[in-house]
Structure formats: structure tokens, C-alpha cells
Amino acid sequence: MAEINPMELLRSNLSRVRIPEPTNRIYKQECCLSFDSPRSEGGLFVDMNTFLAFGKDHVAWNYEKTGNPVYLHIKQTQKLVSEDRPLKKPALLAIGIDGGFDNNEPEYEETHNIVILPSYVTLPFPSVELPEKVRLAVDSILLAEGAERKEQVAAWTADKKQKSTYAMELQQIGNVVVPPSGWKCAKCDKTDNLWLNLTDGMILCGRKNWDGTGGNNHAVEHYRETGYPLAVKLGTITSDLEAADVFSYPEDDSVIDPHLAEHLAYFGIDFSSLQKTEMTTAERELDQNTNFDWNRIQESGQDVEPIFGPGYTGLVNLGNSCYMAATMQVVFSTQSFCRRYYMNQNLKMAFETAPADPTVDLNMQLTKLAHGLLSGKYSLPASERDGTATPSVKDAKQEGIPPRMFKAVIAASHPEFSTMRQQDALEFFLHFLDQVERSNAAKPELDPSRSFKFGVEDRILCSSGKVAYNKRLDYILSLNIPLHEATNKQELEAFNKIKAEKMSEGKDVSNDEIVRPRVPLEACLANFAAPEEIRDFYSSALKAKTTALKTAGLTSFPDYLVLHMRKFVMEAGWVPKKLDVYIDVPDIIDISHMRSKGLQPGEELLPEAVPEGEVESSQPVADDAIVAQLASMGFNQLHCQKAAINTSNAGVEEAMNWLLSHMDDPDIDAPISHSAKGAEASIDQSAVDTLVSFGFQEEIARMALKASGGDIEKATDWIFSNPNAYASASSMGTDTASNSTPTPVDAGLPDGGGRYRLFGIVSHIGTSTQCGHYVAHILKDGRWVIFNDDKVGASINPPKDMGYLYFFERING
Predict the structure, then answer these.
(1) Within 13 Å and on the Cβ side, how many CA atoms surround 500?
(2) Which residues are part of a known binding site for Zn(2+)?
(3) Where does the chain bind Zn(2+) (predicted)?
(4) 278 pLDDT exceeds 70?
């Protein structure tokens, strides 16, 4: 048989070559089915018809599926560097960008060839002998910004500061002259963290941090008393005025004051002569990331031995994606997800059933992620992947895999997760399981998310002696932390005395001196099951409002139990605060006593009825007391009214939680609609049916959809975040009684004994779930392992007492 000329073969396939248009998504940095890249041994093959990329082990599958024979082969080889570049101290709270953490990226040489399948006939590029169509197509591919890169245009850094509207017409009063140094708070002895109010020249200390450090809140209290909006942090003022830390209290953010020079001159301040002596708010946030919690949770300073092999693959931080990395590492340590997306489904099976673009298919991308994490293919020392000299075991590190395509798919239905901002790991976990359940709806027996699902039953005992039972399904058990159950009360009292003495002297306590409350996990579980009083409960038996008792129990025990510790609460004055507390978590727990007993012999259900005169919906009215308390904290009056209405006046804490999570809503400043009937009519019945299919009561579903603008995802989160909604609905007579007979959605859930073993911890570092860092610790092969983005190693001291989410596996037998 005569040998085919490569150029003639290429010309015969020109009809399968396309020149990409500006709207085409071009993949050239990562395989669609694996984590192979141009730096992998076999390089990357870009289909010159669909512009999808494939590794050397998978390009033949694409040829078999599509018949597309012509590919651009991209291979990158690392350049040799004579000396290791020194690590720089980070200047930004960012990962993977200039000035951020660990940004020593090696340089690579890139080569290109045209490859024709199935025989892998190769032609070099560039070459003037290539057909013009091919040359134009390749040039367009190489010059275009890759689809992967487009999805990573942002990095972990604060949003750009905006000009304050209050700075433009700021009225300044008094005749205060501020000296260039020697400042002290006008209301206490603090000499650092001082803020100059730009209206009256008062010098006052800043906010108190959640750990007790910082100021005494005198500056913000002065704003609440006077309404004077702007303050500048003394010690941050230099000749570079844009670097000065100006804070706007009504805008609740750091801002730019374009007239700062003249505002300072009013108080006799010559900014050109001042030296920087204080950190800005952003710098302090960065500095806090090296504090005790950061070091303890990340096991910084510990001689952590790197681990490589199947199940020990790190995930590259894409910019604020640690919440996703920590969660997915734990999820793929469960048998249910391993079986579904790794053991029982290979990459080729997933690709064959995927749509034309496998990058948008959740099943494909979950299978890709599972094989990337569990196969061990990418869990190698970086030197073995790039061919350089092998370092010592202690210094070895892996590159990890970048879950870009998975993130794009899972975030497609959730606008927040598609951003580069930090997110709540709990919220992501719930969204992820919801998407997995939806993608397996056709074959629910294959759905691995069911291994986390369980039933919860609320029993409401009316003063009439009759009862109501409300049931719902959940994936997590959210626990309050009863600080009064701390086991180290004497040590805490002694520490608080020392702390008070130091603060009176204007000194801060060191991290080594801090004593944190220690609360047993058993106390948190007992608090969940303890009776809770419901005031103003409408009793259909008494036909009047009364006081009822609510208790909660589980109707089934899942294969995997996830405990969420509510570390973010409201302190005195309703100021959001992160509890600085340790939770003593045993390796094995038994929750058998938490099983719900259901309707008991002799119990009588409350009759189904609604309060007289309340059958017709009235217009939404905010509780004045809730609005007043929120407004006293500096929030906008309209925003406070919306928060109260959208949480059905359940309480200040519920309203505050709603307000904090909806501050950025585009319609937050829109007037309140007073057409309740119109609001009810606007709720999509299909959305109500969807929530009901999840196991929620219909009235609860309507309440949640109303509070969430009809968005099912937000409505689900609202229900999880407002456990008192059931009681609120009952008090309004919308769901005073329900049958205790299991509903269809209760059937088929995994169930078993109540003994569980701890196997995973997701810890959070930072003052809010919307900032900071997440790390996972997982029990694998009999030892604890730390998964800190792309760093994987044997844990020496797992922070079992500092978790945000705890994952337990049921002990069978």
C-alpha cells in the first residue's frame, strides 16, 4: 500500500478544519476529560473543528465520537532556572497573582504541530507549506484567550474602593487642631487603632475584633450618636493620600475621599510630613491571616510530610476557591461518591453519554474530578511531572489539579459561586448536593447525595395538650453552641480579669495568653434536641394564640452525618460576631437518643384550621420593634423593613441574617410592594412543587420563595437558615397540624444505627464565612491528612476542636 503524503492527507480533511470566530470558546490549557495540559508528557490536542482540548489518552475517543481528524498539538517544556527565586512576603490577600501568596511560576517553552488521526500523522507548525486555512485557524487559536483563562480573570483581592458620596459635601465643624503624634482615644486609654472623625475632629478607637483585640467601638458609637459619616485612621496618612484608610460608616466600607487633603487641613494636619505607623484595614486583614488560628489550622511551622498517590491529590486555588477545594476533598472521601463517579464509571463512559460539549456536563466534570483526585495520576512530586531533579521527601510538593471546568458547571446555576469572591463552604456544600440530586433525577438509585440526606421532625406541643408534627428533609444538622456549657469556666474567669486589666491600661492580650471557651459537642447536640418555647403560637384547638413547646428529632440516620457549627452569632447590640470557641469533638458519637418517635398512642393532633379573619392575606407589615433594633445599628430603614417582612417577623437575628446576605441585591433599594395578593400570585407554582418534592411543607415553600424573590436555590438556603420558619408558619395558622404518616419523600432514605465515626473536618479561618480561608483534614488509611489547596500531607495535630463542618460516617454492625 502506497504511503499517504501528510500534506495531501491534511488537504483532504480541510473541510473538518474551522477558523474560530470571536464568539467561539477555545480550550487550549486543559483536557476536557482529564487534567492533562500542554505541560503533561503527551501535551494537549486541540480539535480544530470544535476547539475542545484532549490529552493523549483521550484524543482518540473524540475522533471515534466525532470523526474530527485534525488537531493542533501543543507541548510546553519547562525552561531551566539556575537559582530558585526567593519567596516574597505577600502584599495582597490573594493567591496566584502578583503580590499574593506563592507566585513563583516557572517559565515554559511551547512547540506546536498539526496532528492527523487516526494514524497521528504529524506536520510542523509554523510552516509556509501548510494550507492558508490551517495557518489562519492555528494563529487564531494561539492568539485567542483560552476559555479556561476567561473564567479566571479575577483573583483573591478586595474590590476597588469607591469614592464616598458623603465626602463631596462633608460639613466640618469645631476648631480642633490635631497634633502630628501622641494621639489617644477621647473616651479610653487606647493609643493605637485610632480614627479621626472628619466632621468634628474627635479621635476615637476602632471596632473591637471578634477575638477581643482591637479597639472599644468608640468611633462607631460616636457615628451612631452623631451621624457624622467619615473617619480616617490615624497612622495611615502619608503623602500618598490614596493609601490612607478612610471608612464610611453609612456605606459600611473603606472608601476614597477625593477631598481628603482639604478635610485634613481643616484640622491643621499637614499630610506631607506624616509617617505611616498603622496598618490599613486591608493590611490588618492580611496580617490576621498569620495569627494563631491561621497557623494552627494550617499546621504552619509543623514538619508536615507530603503524601502522594491515589486519593492524595491537591486542588489548585483558582482565586478564593478554597471553600470548594476543602469541601470536595471530603466529599470524594466517601464511598458513595467514589463508587458513583470513579469505581462504577470511567472517563470514556461519561464522555460517550455527554453532550457535544462535555465541559458543560456535570456528570462528565464530576467524573473527571473524581478520577483526577482518586487515580493518583496527578499526585506526584512536581519534579516527576516536569522531569527535573527529585528533591528530598520533606521539600517535595505536588502541583495539584485545577478544578476550573467543574467550578464553571457547578456555578452556572448560582451567580455567587461563579464569582471569585470567597463563599461559605456550607452554602456551597448544600448547593452542590442539590445539583447532584438533580443530575441523577432520572436514576435516583444512583444518586450519591442521598447518603447525606435525612429526615427531621418537629413536634409542637400546644398548651391545649394537643400536638402538631412538621417534617422536612435536610443534608446537615446545624447546631448552636451553648457557651454556658463551657467546661473551663474557672480558666475563662481568670483570663477575663487579666484581659480587663490589660485593656484598662491600653494593652492587648497576646495570642499565647488567650483562653477560649471549650464546649463539648454533646452539649451542642443536646441543645438541638432540647425543648424550645414558641410564643404567640396560634392554637387551632383553643382558637387563640398561646405558648407552645417545640422539640426536634431525626426520622432517619444518614450514611454520612454532617454537623454545622453556628460560630457566627449576634452579640450584645446585635453586632455580628464570630464565636472564638473550641468544640471538644470525640472520634465516635452516638445520636441514637435523637431519633424522633412520631405520633404516640394517646396523643391528639391539632385540628387543621387557620385563625379567624386571617384567611385572606393581608399586606406585608414589618414588626416595628425588629425594624427599630436594626435601624439603631446603623442600617437603612427601608432595608430593615424588608428584612423583617422577608423573614416573616421571626426575630431580630433572622432579620439580621437576611439583611447581611441581601445587602448586594439589585432591588434592595426598591420600594416595598404592598400587594400581598400580587406577591402570592407571582410565585411560580412549579417552584413551590419543586420545594415540596424536597420534603418541605407547601406553606413553608411559599414563604421561602416569597423571601427569595422566587429563586429556588435561595429559597432552599432561606429554609435551612431559618429553622424557626416552621414555628412562624404555625403561629400564623398556615401549618398548625400535619399527619405523622411518612410522606413519599421520606421513603427510601438510608437509615441505620446512631453510632458515627469522625472522618472529616472543614475548618475556617477569618472573621466571616465570606472571607478568610478553608482547610480540610480527613482520616485516610488510619491517619489524619491535611488538604490545604494543593498541599497534601500527614497531619501532626489535626484541629478537631476548631471545625466549622464535621463529617461523620455511620458505624455499621
Answers:
(1) 6
(2) 185, 188, 205, 218
(3) 185, 188, 205, 218
(4) no
Amino acid sitting at position 139: D
Q: What integer pLDDT is reported at residue 86 of this predicted model?
A: 52
In a domain, 750, yes or no: no
Q: Are strands 162-163 and 467-474 parallel, antiparallel or unpaired?
A: unpaired
Question: φ, ψ for residue 44 (rounded to 5)?
Answer: -130, 140
DSSP assignment letter at 605: B
Domain match, 639 and 693 both: no
Q: Is residue 574 part of a domain?
A: no
Instruction: Give me the domain span that covers residue 271.
Output: 162-288
Three-state DSSP class for 491? helix
Whole-angstrom distance, CA of residue 2 vs CA of residue 8? 13
Residue 478 grid coordinates: 446545624
Site of grid cell 415540596: 692
- Give the closest residue to 381 by CA, choosing from 795, 794, 792, 796: 792
Q: Grade residue 732 by pLDDT with cuts at 50, 70 and 90.
A: very low
- Pair 738, 697: CB distance under 8 Å: yes
Query: Nearest to residue 39, comparing CAs of 93, 78, 80?
Result: 78
Task: Give residue 665's pLDDT band: very low, low, confident or very high (50, 70, 90).
Answer: confident
Catalytic residues: 322, 773
Q: State the pTM of this model.
A: 0.69
* Chain centroid to CA 305: 28
Q: How confident is the model at residue 613 (pLDDT cuts 50, 70, 90)?
A: very low
Residues 413 and 495 in one domain: no
Ramachandran region of residue 52, left (φ > 0), alpha (ψ -120 to 50) or beta? Answer: beta
d(CA 439, CA 378): 27
80 C-beta neighbours (distance < 10 Å), count: 8
Domain membership flag for residue 605: no
First to last CA, the chain: 67
Residue 689, pLDDT > 50, answer: yes
Q: Where are the alpha helices (DSSP H) in 145-187?
A: 147-150
Strands of the sheet containing 108-116, edge to edge, are: 53-55, 44-47, 70-78, 108-116, 121-125
Q: Are residues 343 and 433 located together in one domain of the fold?
A: yes
**Residue appearing with cell numbers 445587602:** 663
The pLDDT tens digits of the residues spanning 40-56 come to 999 999 999 999 999 99
**277 plus 180 within the same structural domain:** yes
Residue type at 46? V
Q: Is residue 761 part of a domain?
A: yes
Q: How confident is the model at residue 158 (pLDDT cuts 50, 70, 90)?
A: very low
What are the φ/ψ torsions at residue 271 (nearest 5 degrees)?
-65, -25
Domain count, the chain: 6
CA distance 301 to 486: 29
Q: Is the pLDDT of residue 153 over 60?
A: no
164: which 3 cell numbers?
464616598
Average pLDDT over residues 664-670: 75
How far is 695 from 454, CA to CA, in rounded Å?
Answer: 10
DSSP output for 500-548: HHHHHTT-PPPTTT----EEEHHHHHHHHHS-EEEEEEEETTTTEEEEE
